Each structure stands twice: as C-alpha cells, then as structure tokens.
Amino acid sequence: MAQRWKFSPSMLGWYLVGLDYPNAPDDLVDVPAETWQVLQGKQIEAGPDGMPREWTAPAPTEEEIRTSLLAAVDARLNTAAQARGYDSIVTAALRAALPSSPFHAEGVAYGTWMDQTYAHCYAVLAQVQAGERPIPTEAELMAELPPPPEF
C-alpha cells in the first residue's frame, strides 16, 4: 500500500498519515499520492485551496528590472574602462578634466561615451515607463547602446 500524506498550508509541511503528531496543525489537507510524488524536492507553497503546489518566483518588479538593467550598463562601462587599465569608467572619464594629461583624449572619449550611454539608457527607461515600448531584455538594451571608444 502506498504511503498517504497530508499537507499543512500554514506550516508548509508534510505529515505522513498513520503517524502520531501531537502538535500537528489543524489545517491538514489530504494530498493525492501523485501530487506528493511530483512535489518531492521542490519548493512548495499553499495554493488558494490550501493544496500544495510548486512555488514560483514572482515576476520582478519594474524597479527591480530597472536596477538590473542599470547595473548591466554600469558593468559594461566599467569593463571597457578596465580593459584600458582604469579601475572604473569614472576614473577614465575624470582624465577629461586634465588638459595637460597624456590621458586627456581618452578621458574625453570615455566621458562622452558614458554620457551618451546613460542618456540612451534613461531615454529607454522613460519610454518603458510611459508605455511607449516594452521592457527590453539586457541583451536588447546592450545592443542599442553606443559602442565603446576605439583607440
């Protein structure tokens, strides 16, 4: 005979039928054997009917997506600057303020690129917020951004 299980929506716990649980919650529901089998090893949650179901992560919020896209843009800018020996895009762009520096031209190029990149990124995010376009994936946004400067 197959084992029978009960599930507690309040505890998100399984209880084997036939064992004595002195402190078992009083919201136990009978669970079909197939359901118990399918859910083994998975994160679960209680459905509206109290029955267990596989937990699904909520969709990211608009703010979480915005933060993630901006972090990807930051990483792209910093990676390009680091490839030239700078610790970040800010350090690279800072050289634009030093006209007599041998790195002045690079600083201007990096500062201009950073400015153009953020301007485009924020324009895209404004279009999304206004409902004028769907939220781009990270790859889609990266493809739209201006290329890094070449030296």
UniProtKB/TrEMBL annotation:
Domain of life: Bacteria
Protein name as catalogued: Uncharacterized protein
Organism (species): Variovorax paradoxus
Source species taxonomy: Bacteria, Pseudomonadati, Pseudomonadota, Betaproteobacteria, Burkholderiales
